[in-house]
């Protein structure tokens, strides 16, 4: 039901299903696994609806659409088109599989839909977490933030590795900035959305580390049922298909990424609100005539509010199915889908913060920026020009979000170093 999974997720689903079957506990011929790998190698991507899985008894509905492709039914994305699987097979010289005993069940019983969506979501969330530190560093400069709060001894005193690491990266980004201040220079302390970046972003990293651990286990797990042991002599009906571990992990990731957007939106407010800073109201080039970034903050607030709804844990819900035999289910696939949407929303919030922070540092003096944030600013200005008058800012937000989705900031900084 509903829209199909993104192609990258569907392709990951095929690969993960093959990997699970390669564990040797599923009672399936090598031919079936080879055909799954043909799909990956020939870039034949099953069309798999996102909705319809309860996250227990495996992702039965989504994985059934994967299995349909192997037997020459169903649809695939092939060479930019949505076609029947049989058409793609004929063009590639591939023959459909005639399934034998246990093989159909082995293909559709597992957690690969929620896991594939979770892996793609995790990789995007990890990238966003790094980007949020660089973007927030530029915001600190735009607000003449107090650098003392990021001192190493402060974070060592608490002891969380992720918090310590976040503070260290921000200190590194801002090490030669002339726009940061010391406590007591302009004010005694900053608001929490600046001062507590290591504590909040660090906690997000803690959640992401947990998610990564669970996904790595699940990616390499045998999750169908029944499982075959002792060279086929022992067949055990168990419950490895139950998605509860991934459901919890996805719900945890939802909350952690949503909070990354939440604190970002508060920094956006501090950048544009004249009652909270000494910058032009709404960063407007013409106070009273041009709206500046006012509506962009509206958009960020809307996305953050939507995230709060999506962050409600899916794993606390369960509906019995299969004549009440399957009387507890995980809803892990719903959790992974909601996590993916939260990540997309959060990227747009961070894109808005990036736009506002770039505008703020222009008012402060770009030449006073730290070398690292200045390089990021220079690249950002190739994507989003300075605000000289009101324009269609939705295009800027989408361009900045797409940039954040595709860019490897480490490589960008290295490339700019080489250029200079």
Automatic annotation (TrEMBL):
It is found in: Cytoplasm. Keywords: Histidine metabolism, Lyase. One of its GO terms (molecular function) is histidine ammonia-lyase activity. Pathway: Amino-acid degradation; L-histidine degradation into L-glutamate; N-formimidoyl-L-glutamate from L-histidine: step 1/3. Its EC number is 4.3.1.3. It holds the Pfam family Lyase_aromatic. The keyword Lyase applies. Coiled coil: none annotated. It catalyses: L-histidine = trans-urocanate + NH4(+). Gene3D superfamilies: Fumarase/aspartase (Central domain) (1.20.200.10), Fumarase/aspartase (N-terminal domain) (1.10.275.10). Belongs to the PAL/histidase family. PANTHER family: HISTIDINE AMMONIA-LYASE. This is Histidine ammonia-lyase.
């Amino acid at each position: 039901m509903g829209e199909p999974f993104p192609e990258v997720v569907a392709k990951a689903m095929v690969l993960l299903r093959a990997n699970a079957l390669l564990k040797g506990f599923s009672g399936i011929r090598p031919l079936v696994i080879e055909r799954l790998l043909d799909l990956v190698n020939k870039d034949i991507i099953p069309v798999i609806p996102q909705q319809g899985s309860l996250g227990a008894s495996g992702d039965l509905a989504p994985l059934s659409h994967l299995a349909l492709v192997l037997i020459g039914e169903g649809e695939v994305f092939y060479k930019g088109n949505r076609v029947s699987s049989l058409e793609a097979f004929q063009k590639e010289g591939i023959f459909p599989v005639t399934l034998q005993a246990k093989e159909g069940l082995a293909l559709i019983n597992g957690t690969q839909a929620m896991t594939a969506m979770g892996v793609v979501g995790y990789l995007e969330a990890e990238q966003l977490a790094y980007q949020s530190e660089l973007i927030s560093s530029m915001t600190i400069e735009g607000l003449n933030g107090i650098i003392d709060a990021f001192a190493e001894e402060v974070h060592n005193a608490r002891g969380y590795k992720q918090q310590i690491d976040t503070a260290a990266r921000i200190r590194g980004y801002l090490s030669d900035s002339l726009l940061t201040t010391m406590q007591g220079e302009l004010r005694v302390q900053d608001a929490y959305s600046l001062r507590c970046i290591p504590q909040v972003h660090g906690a997000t990293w803690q959640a992401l580390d947990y998610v990564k651990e669970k996904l790595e286990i699940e990616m390499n797990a045998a999750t169908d049922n029944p499982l075959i042991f002792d060279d086929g002599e022992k067949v055990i009906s168990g419950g490895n298909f139950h998605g509860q571990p991934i459901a919890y992990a996805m719900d945890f990731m939802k909350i952690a990424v949503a909070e990354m957007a939440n604190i970002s939106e508060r920094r956006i407010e501090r950048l544009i609100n004249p009652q909270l800073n000494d910058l032009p109201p709404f960063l407007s080039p013409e106070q009273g005539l041009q709206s500046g970034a006012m509506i962009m903050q509206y958009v960020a607030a809307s996305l953050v509010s939507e995230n709060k709804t999506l962050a409600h844990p899916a794993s606390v819900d369960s509906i019995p199915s299969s004549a009440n035999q399957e009387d507890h289910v995980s809803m892990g696939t719903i959790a992974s889908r909601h996590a993916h949407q939260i990540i997309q929303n959060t990227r747009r919030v961070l894109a808005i913060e990036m736009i506002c922070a770039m505008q703020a540092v222009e008012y402060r003096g770009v030449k006073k920026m730290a070398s690292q944030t200045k390089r990021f600013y220079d690249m950002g200005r190739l994507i989003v020009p300075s605000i000289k008058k009101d324009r269609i800012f939705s295009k800027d937000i989408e361009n900045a979000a797409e940039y954040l989705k595709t860019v490897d900031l480490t490589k960008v900084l290295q490339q700019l170093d080489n250029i200079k």
